Amino acid sequence: MLKVLLNGCNGKMGQVVSKVAKTYEDVTIVAGVDLNTTRNFDYPVYSNPSQIQEEFDVIIDFSLPEATLAILEFAKAKKKPIVIATTGFTSEQKEKIVESSKEIPVFWSANMSLGVNLVADLVQKAYKTLGSRFDIEIVEKHHNQKIDAPSGTALMLADAINEVANNAYEYIYDRHTRRKKRAQNEIGIFSVRGGTIVGEHSVIFAGPDEIIEIKHTALSKEVFANGSIRAAMFIKDKKPGIYNMSDLINSM
Ligand SMILES: NC(=O)C1=CN([C@@H]2O[C@H](COP(=O)(O)OP(=O)(O)OC[C@H]3O[C@@H](n4cnc5c(N)ncnc54)[C@H](OP(=O)(O)O)[C@@H]3O)[C@@H](O)[C@H]2O)C=CC1
Ligand SMILES: O=C(O)C1=N[C@H](C(=O)O)C[C@H](O)C1
Question: For residue 199, what are the domain limits?
Fold first, then answer.
């Protein structure tokens, strides 16, 4: 039985992970951490990791950057693996996560769906084929409760392109403050927020007289919850290091 500690258990994703975990015979959530501990949970919930008494194998984190950093310290102290799904980190926070992976296994992905990982491969292939003759723009759409912008996935896809482009691209967020033509070395990134949109990402390659659009649409939060549970199973017995969806998919 895989024993999970769920950080951010009262959030939108935390609640979906709690529900989805029940469909796995060999997974159980033994405790949660969140600011609000008053709701009725199937497991004990604490406002501070230091209060946790339960034994656990792995942490799943869908919270806020500051809360992730706090649970990361706890994970290191307990020498336990962690699955980080939270987005919106600063560069300094990202460095701390990378540094922590020298001590514990860290599964880190801004998007826990299998499909977005394929999109990352496809945009790299598109860049290699189309090269710099096509302008690249990314549009992401999410629900009206999302705090961070752009989405972690939009940045992940831009980074995937930059990885095969020798970091040639600069990211431009919205264009309303710029009254000039776009430069060739830009990736424009745009965020739409509204209603209950679960998550859409379009990478547009616009060239002379033709456009290629590579798009992923998440239809439910369950897709992310299932991915995070699979990630927890995958990382349980791994050595310290950084792991992502590619590692998980390659192991399947
Ligand atoms: N990688 C992926 O596939 C996905 C990633 N995400 C990311 O996951 C994160 C959470 O998303 P979502 O569930 O929609 O957001 P929510 O705001 O609904 O959930 C975050 C939860 O964390 C709680 N929280 C705040 N501070 C702490 C703390 N110190 N310790 C523990 N919990 C705390 C919040 O409490 P309170 O509301 O009281 O502040 C809230 O209950 C976001 O960064 C989002 O982008 C989301 C979906 C998929
Ligand atoms: O906040 C969300 O909901 C989501 N966040 C992730 C992100 O920022 O990329 C992943 C997914 O798109 C849903």
Answer: 114-218
Q: How many domains does the chain have?
A: 2
Query: What are the pLDDT digits (tens) for 38-93?
Result: 878 899 999 999 999 999 999 999 999 999 999 999 999 999 999 999 999 999 99
Determine if ligand 1 sits within 6 Å of the CB of residue 35: yes
Which residues on adjacent β-strands are paired with residue 59?
5, 82
With a 6 Å cutoff on the Cβ, whether 109 touches ligand 2 is: no
CATH code of residue 120:
3.30.360.10
Is the domain of 11 the same as that of 103? yes
Q: Cα of 228 to ligand 2 centre, how many Å?
A: 13
Regarding whether 227 and 209 lie in a shared domain, the answer is: no
226 with 199, same domain?
no
Q: Does 214 share its domain with 242?
A: no
Distance from C-alpha of 63 to C-alpha of 14, rounded to nearest angstrom: 8
Atom of ligand 2 lying closest to residue 88 CA: 8
Please indicate, yes or no, whether residues 120 and 94 belong to a single structural domain of this protein: no
pTM for the model = 0.97
Question: What sign for the dihedral angle of Cα 30, 143, 71, 49?
Answer: negative
Instruction: Please provide the DSSP assignment of 5-37 as one string.
Output: EEETTTSHHHHHHHHHHTT-TTEEEEEEE-S--
Ligand 1 pocket member 110 (CB < 6 A): yes
Q: Which of 237, 235, 252, 238 is nearest to 85 (CA)?
A: 235
CATH of the domain at 85: 3.40.50.720
Q: ipTM, 2 decimals?
A: 0.99
Indicate whether residue 8 lines ligand 1 (CB < 6 A). Answer: yes
- According to the annotation, is 156 in a ligand binding site? no
Q: Is 216 a catalytic residue?
A: no
Nearest bound ligand to CA 191? 2
Is 142 a catalytic site residue? yes
Is 11 marked as binding a ligand? yes
